[in-house]
Amino acid sequence: MTYRIATVGGDGIGPEVVDEGCKVLDRLEELEGFGTERVDFDLGGRRYLATGEALDDGTLEELRGFDAIYLGAVGTPDVPPGVLERGMLLKLRFAFDQYVNLRPVKLYPGVTSPIAGLTPERCDFVVIRENTESVYAGAGGALYPGTSSEVATQESVNTYHGVERALRYAFELAERRDGRLTLVHKTNVLTYAGSLWMRTFEALGEAEFPEVTRDYVHVDAACLYFVTQPERFDVVVTENLFGDIITDLGAAVQGGLGLAASGNLDPSRRAPSMFEPVHGSAPDIAGSGTADPVAAVLCLGQMLTFLGEEAAAARVDRAVGALLDERAGRVPDGVGYSTADVGDRLVELVADA
Ligand code: IPM
Ligand code: MN
Fold first, then answer.
1. Nearest ligand to the C-alpha atom of residue 262
2. Is the C-beta atom of 92 inside 6 A of ligand 1?
3. CA 310 to chain centre
4. pTM of the model
5. Domains by residue range for the chain, with CATH
6. Which ligand is nearest to the CA of 245?
7. Cα–Cα distance for residue pair 250/328, rounded to 1 Å
8. FRET label pair with 221: which of 63, 209, 230, 338, CA 20 to 30 Å apart?
9. What tens digit of pLDDT does each residue of 261-301 get?
């Protein structure tokens, strides 16, 4: 099987970590006997400053023909906030209907969580964040801007179609994992959207996934439990904005943004899904050769799982686990390793695994 992969290094440390991911991918192809055809796209802040466009429609349509997009990071200090977020990242999510954001929260052995005494056995869950609706839909507006009468509205759009498909993906994932699904919302205050989510959750679970245990937690309490009882969770499903916020908390719990992977999925496979480390472009360390490529490699694992290359994905997971264990105790993680060292070591470890 040969997959068409669009690589988008982007800005800052993005290209550096994607390069390491591609080295690991080269080795996995030899080991597992699949192939990729990779095409590199120049997108991001630098490109925006040069052309005035974050993502033109021609490029968008070209990307549509790929099986997956492997993204490093976008953002440079001289591009105003929102330009690349709305103009590129969200544009891709919406255009390709990447309606699931998959965010694992897994504490690997050898990684120190900021939660004292937390062990890997107690922290291994996945957040399914609805990725196309809620306030991210962009509904709202401003009246009398810049005056003392200014009115700003920002509406949360929730459709049965959007809610049902996110819940369905989460139930199916829970079925393949430990069989426990937790809905996170704020049904006690957001009564309209909360009711839609809750009713759909109950009805779908009862009708089609009776063997999955259902639980519900308010989003504020979920923050508490992420920290105090992460073992409570197997699969968590939530709406877009809550999902954005709690997944950064999840990243902290599992040892930091350097280990956080994000998959923006179109499970229908009509358009490419996109895989990106959560850490961003880190312009302060760009070019220094010290960026940690582990999150980018974890994204590679997510991409391989999504493409159906399970054996290669399992190699990535075991190799990352072994690497993190090897460098355990070095604080902060990764000190003493260059970006390329980590990539090279992972190339070796995927073969052992
Ligand atoms: C994420 C990011 C994005 C989001 C930003 C960069 C638009 O925080 O993927 O979690 O808010 O979804
Ligand atoms: Mn976020």
1. 1
2. no
3. 18
4. 0.96
5. 1-112+255-353 (3.40.718.10), 119-124+132-237 (no CATH)
6. 2
7. 20
8. 209
9. 999 999 999 999 999 999 999 999 999 999 999 999 999 99
